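Researcher: Final request for today, and then I'll write up notes for the group meeting. The sequence and the SMILES for adenosine-5'-diphosphate follow.
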Amino acid sequence: MRPLIELRQVCKHYRRGGQSVPVLHALDLEIQAGDFLALMGPSGSGKTTLLNLIGGLDRASSGSVIVDGQALEPLSSGQLANWRARNVGFVFQFYNLLPVLSAARNVELPLLLTGLNSAQRARHVAAALAVVGLADRARHRPTELSGGQAQRVAIARALVADPTLLVCDEPTGDLDRKTADEVLTLLQELNREHGKTIIMVTHDPKAAEFATHRLHLDKGQLVGVEHQGP
Amino acid sequence: MLAQILAITLINLRAIPARLGSSLVIVVGIGGVVGVLIALLAMAEGFKTTLASTGRADRAMVMRAGSNDELASVLNIEVWNIVRDLPGIRRDAQDRPIAIAERYILSDVRKRGAESGANVVVRGTTPDVFRVRPEARIVAGRMFERGKREVVVGRGALDQYADMQIGQRVDIRDGAWLIVGVFESGGDVHESELWVDVTALHQALRAPLYAAVTVQLADDRPATFRAFEQHIADDPRLNVSVQRVPDYYASRSVALEKFITVLGYSVAGIMAVGAVFGALNTMYAAVSTRSLEIATLRAIGFRATPVVISVLAEAVLLAFIGASLGSAMAYVIFNGYTVSTLNFQTFSQVAFAFRVTPQLLVEGVGLACLIGLLGGLFPALRAARLPVAEALRSA
Ligand SMILES: Nc1ncnc2c1ncn2[C@@H]1O[C@H](COP(=O)(O)OP(=O)(O)O)[C@@H](O)[C@H]1O
Ligand SMILES: [Mg+2]
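Model: Predicted protein-adenosine-5'-diphosphate complex:
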C-alpha cells in the first residue's frame, strides 16, 4: 500500500543574516494512513520545521513532500491554502483560538471555506464539539475555558472539516499532567475510532506513549523509528 | 470568497473594542478632516449662492465702458436720460420705463460686537427701487422719503453692524442720517447694504453722478438681452457697457470663492495627509497585534485576498464613521451660520450663510474613504505577505 505521506530527500535551511542555516538534512520518511506518530527530539532539532512542511505551511528547500499522492512543491500559495483547508487540521501548543469568537464560532471557521450552508455548518460544529466532549460549552468564549477545554475546542476545529490528517505541535506542552492525559486520550480515540492519521510533535515521553509510532529527530536527522503495536 | 471576507471582517470588527483607542485615531482624525473641508467649502458655497441669487436674468446693468464694478463706474445724468429711453426696456402701466439710476459709495461703520471698522455699501437709489427689484421689501419701519437724509438698512447689515436700529443715526459723508426702516431682499448681496435717497446723496457728495443704471428687460431670453446690448453699442452718444445682473454678481464672487475653495482643499489636504499616517499607524498596529490570528486563519486555509480586503474594509469603515461624525458636526454647527466677509473685488462686506449641500457631504465622505483606503493598503499588504510559519512560531 502506498504511504499517506512520503518525504523524499527533504532539505530545509533558513536564511539568517545572509547565511544559510541548515535545519533538515536529506530526510526520507513514510507515514501510513491510520498512523498516530509521535515526533520527538530535543528543542531546536527541527520538529516544528518538519511538521510545517508536512502540513503545507512552509516549503522544503529541496526534495519533495507528497501527501495522499499530491506533491506540494508545485502548488501556488493560494492552491496550498486550499489544499490545507481540505486536507489538514492543525492543533497548536497555545490553542490559537480567536478570542472574540465563541467556541462554536471558532470551530466553524474551517467550514466557512466549504460550500456548506449555515444549518449544515451548525450540525457539523455540534458533532465536532460532542466528539471532544464540549457540547455544553459551545457559547463560551476562549477566555472562559480552561486550558484543557480550550485545547479540545482547538481539536474540534481541526477535525470539523474532516481532514485527511491532524498535525499537532506540542498539543499538551502547556497543560498539566492530568489535563494532558485527557487530551492525549482524545487524540488516541480519534486515531483508533475515527481512523484519523495524526502527527504529533512532543518532547514528553509520556505523551509519546499514546502514539502508535515514535520518531526521533536530532540535529535535523531521523535517528530511530519505533513501532508500538496497539 | 465573499463569505470568507465577511467572516474575517466581522472578526476584525469585533476586536475593535479591545483596540478602541487606536481605532478612535482614525475616526477622530478623519472626522476632523471632513469637518474642516465641509465647513470651508460650505462657506464658499454660501458665498457663491448669495451672490448668484442677486438679480434676475431679465435684468441688465449699465456701467461706464471699461469699469468692471460699480465702485469704479461713473455715469452722468445724460447717460441716464439716454439709456432709460432705449427700446427693449419693459414699461409699467403708466408707460414709464422700468429703470433706475443709482450711486454706489462705501462708508465706514463699526462691526457689531467689535471695535474694528468695516466698509458698508451705501446705495443711493429711489423710493421706487422696488419696481426694478421686486424681491426686495420693507420689513420694519418705512421706506426713506425722496430728498431726505434717511436710510433703510438691509437685514444682513442690521445683523452685522452696530447701531443700525430704526431711530438711530449713521454717519454718511458730511452728516448723520436717520435710520427709518429695514428691508429684506431674499438673502442676496443687497441685504448687506444701506439704501438712501440718491438725490439726498448727490447733495451730500456735491456731485450729481451715478454709478450704474439697472433696467428691467422685456423678458429673460438671451436674444432680448443681445438686442438691448446692440442698441447701446449702436448709440454714438454712449460709452458704456451692459451686462446681465446675475452675471455681474457671479463675476464678483469668483475670486473669493476660488480663494476659499483653494484654502479649503489645501487645509483639508494637509490634514488628510496627517490622517493617512494616523490610519497607517493604527492599521499597522491592528495587523501586528493580530498577526497570530491572521497566521492561524491562513493555516486553516483562508487565502490572502480576504485578509487584505478585510483590513481595507475595516479601515474604510472606521473612516466612514469618522466622515459621518465630521460631516454631521459641520452640518449642525455651520449650516445656515451667517458671517460676513470682505469681498476682494468690491472691498465691501457681504453677509452670507454657510451652505452644507448634499454634494459637499458626498465629497467629504469620498475623501474619507480615500484616506481609509490609503491608510489601510500597506498594512493590508503586510498582512497578506505575513510568513505564516514564522508568525505561528512567534506565539
Ligand atoms: N524562520 C527561521 N529563521 C531562522 N532560523 C529558524 C527559523 N525557524 C526556525 N529556525 C531554527 O531552526 C531550528 C529548528 O527549529 P524548530 O523546527 O522550531 O525546532 P523544534 O521545533 O524541534 O524546537 C532552530 O535552530 C531554530 O532556531
Ligand atoms: Mg517546535
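Model: The beta strands of chain A are 5-16, 19-31, 36-40, 62-67, 70-71, 88-91, 165-169, 197-201, 213-218, 221-227. The two ends of chain A are 20 Å apart (CA to CA).
Researcher: Thanks, that's everything.
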